[in-house]
């Protein structure tokens, strides 16, 4: 027979072992029979910004780049992707199915063609521009007025289908009323190339490949350290109207509309004015 004292000691050792095991579980050790311990929630990664593709006339490069930076700061969910080219080129790309959310044109003709083709929503004018003559630095002393333009040995203009080329043709036609019936003919005789967008006209003059060209005032201001600017009298000049619209196939329509709205906002108009653009209501009746 087991002595009673030994039975009491065995009972005490068993009780201590049970209590120690329970204490360990209370201090956080997981019971193998229990379910997995709850973990702290993992924060979701930030949402990837939506690409908003903006097709814009070449003359809008500096202004839209600046406006885009401000827009992205105000809309962290947006990432603007710009494509700058001649309005006629961008129109053709949209007609062929190129993915664009916004189209900003340098004239109403190409925009209205997309309206008729049901490619864009209702457009709105957000800015205007005007033409100037740019002269290579080497000829700045001799070509100081529009009347002297036919004296340039090499003139470069925009192609007829390009907005700046179409505006230039209208300007030259109007100038015959004040500078003589043969003024347009004398200018045309000096044309050595016709370019697919206004920036290529500007580049030819800035590089000295042409003596003079006709561009928008905003382009001339952007390159004022490389070319001389010759203003065109208001009675001969024409105003360029810039419309913008959201495309009907926009992948980010809400952000596209927000960008379009930003162009007409007070901040947007100030930014455009800083680059030399005029407000949309600055179109003169005789320039339409």
Structure, explained:
The structure is a single chain. The protein has helices at residues 4-26, 61-74, 87-95, 108-116, 163-179, 183-188, 198-206, 217-222, 253-264, 266-274; strands spanning 50-57, 78-85, 102-104, 124-136, 155-158, 191-195, 212-216, 227-231, 239-246. Helix 2 (61-74) runs antiparallel to helix 10 (266-274) and helix 3 (87-95) runs parallel beside helix 4. The protein has 288 residues and is α/β, with parallel strands linked by helices. The longest helix is centred in the first third of the chain and has 23 residues, at 4-26.
Gist of the model:
By secondary structure, the chain is α/β, with parallel strands linked by helices. The protein has ten helices and nine strands.
């Amino acid at each position: 027979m087991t002595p009673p004292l030994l039975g009491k000691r065995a009972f005490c050792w068993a009780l201590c072992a049970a209590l120690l095991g329970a204490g360990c579980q209370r201090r956080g050790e997981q019971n193998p029979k229990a379910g997995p311990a709850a973990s702290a929630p993992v924060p979701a990664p930030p949402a990837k910004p939506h690409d908003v593709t903006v097709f814009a006339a070449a003359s809008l490069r500096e202004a839209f780049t600046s406006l885009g930076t401000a827009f992205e700061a105000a809309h962290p969910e947006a990432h603007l992707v710009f494509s700058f080219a001649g309005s006629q080129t961008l129109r053709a790309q949209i007609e062929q199915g190129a993915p664009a959310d916004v189209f900003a044109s340098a004239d109403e003709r190409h925009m209205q063609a997309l309206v008729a083709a049901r490619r864009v929503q209702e457009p709105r004018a957000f800015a205007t521009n005007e033409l100037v003559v740019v002269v290579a630095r080497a000829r700045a002393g001799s070509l100081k007025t529009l009347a002297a333009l036919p004296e340039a040995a090499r003139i470069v203009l925009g192609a007829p289908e390009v907005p700046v080329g179409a505006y230039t043709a209208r300007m030259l036609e109007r100038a015959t009323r004040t500078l003589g019936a043969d003024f347009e003919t004398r200018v045309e005789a000096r044309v050595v190339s016709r370019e697919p967008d206004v920036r290529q006209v500007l580049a030819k003059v800035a590089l000295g490949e042409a003596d003079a060209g006709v561009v928008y005032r905003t382009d001339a201001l952007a390159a004022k350290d490389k070319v001389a600017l010759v203003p065109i009298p208001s009675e001969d000049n024409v105003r360029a109207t810039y419309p913008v619209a959201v495309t009907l196939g926009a992948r980010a329509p809400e952000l596209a509309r927000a960008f379009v709205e930003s162009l007409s906002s007070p901040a947007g108009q100030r930014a455009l004015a800083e680059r030399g653009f005029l407000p949309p209501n600055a179109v003169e009746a005789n320039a339409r």
